[in-house]
Amino acid sequence: MDLGNGPQPGGLIDRAKAIILKPDDTFPQLAAEQTTPGDIITRYAMPLAAIGPVAGFIGGQLFGISLLLVTFKPSLMTGLTTALTSFVMSLVSLVVVALIADFLAPNFGGEANRTRAFKLVAASMTPGWVAGILGLIPSLLALAIIAGLYGIYLFYKGATPLMKVPEDKSVVYTAVTVVAAIVLSIVASTVTAKVTGAMGMGAAGMMADSGDSAEVNIPGMGKLDTKNLEQMGKQMEAAANGEVTPVDTAKLQALLPASLGAYTRASLDTGAMGQMGKGVSATYKSGDKSIKLSVIDSAGLGAGLARSVRGGTR
After folding, report:
1. If we measure between CA atoms, which residue out of 229, 202, 232 comes closest to residue 213?
2. Lowest-confidence range among 67-71, 89-93, 272-276?
3. Where are the alpha helices (DSSP H) in 199-243?
4. Close Cβ partners of 3 (under 8 Å, ≥ 6 residues apart)
5. Is the pLDDT reported for residue 12 higher than 80?
6. What pLDDT sits at residue 151?
7. Which of 68, 103, 244, 307 could form an SS bridge with 239, CB 3.0 to 4.6 Å?
């Protein structure tokens, strides 16, 4: 069972499991196996590196992608472009980090061996590739960070059997290689952001794309779908120009009942409600307790926020 020469899916799965679960037994086997960097990339890395992008594409289409307070669902083309970019960058990272590991090994008492460097880096990236399946449920994708940390441990475990780095220097060798890889990752992320941004596929581009939708979670107000932003803008402009006919006050008053359970309406006020628009409010009392309920006509704010019911107790 060779890293890069396993033609059957079962061989690939078994090898990935062995690397993750039994690194001490597996790395010496990898060191002895005959293969080439090309085989490692095409027969081992490519199938595993595709897991994350494919899962992320499916998860994004089904559940959307969350960034802080914004949840957006990319269009089909945006999702495909993002998945392809992620897949390519994963393979590019494998190649570059392997070259770095190969270059640094002699500086820490090890041997320069490009094929073994590819084996080492591919093995250390295996947990992250496998954890990419969590992309099916985007909210769980953060757990992939744990897989990345375990990948660093695997690199450390494989440094001696694969690159012949003395055990007492393998920690420093691993640390220097990881730092170099992080710097590379930052540069790669910057380049990727510029490329996808130029194609209109960045975060802003995704949400601006006519085929994408985004929901902004506004604390205390709920969710706002950005597909309604254009409509909201037109309605606000119309309201400013006096083109929106306000709801008749009597109709708003009719929404406020004479009582709420044990609470009886004690007062009814009509007028402006600050920045929200015009409306009516009523105060309900039951003994020393009171509830204030407001119905606001804020048509200028658009669908979803046009009719608001606000209440408070004390």
Report:
1. 229
2. 272-276
3. 203-208, 229-240
4. 15, 30, 33, 35, 40, 44, 119, 122, 123
5. yes
6. 93
7. 244
CA dist 302 and 297 (Å) reads 11
Q: Which pTM was predicted?
A: 0.60
pLDDT of residue 236: 52
Q: Can you give the residue ranges of every domain in the chain?
A: 9-213, 245-313
d(CA 279, CA 294): 7
Q: Which residue has the tokens 């608001």?
A: 308
Selection from 19, 8, 6, 12 nearest residue 162 by Cα: 19
Helix (H) or strand (E) holding 285: strand 278-286
Summarize pLDDT for 131-151 with one digit per residue, the tens.
988 888 876 767 777 888 899
Burial of 66 per CB tally in 10 Å (0-12, 13-18, 19+): middle
Mapping DSSP to helix (H, G, I), strand (E, B) and coil, where does residue 108 land?
A: helix
The rounded Cα 282 to chain-centroid distance in angstroms is 44
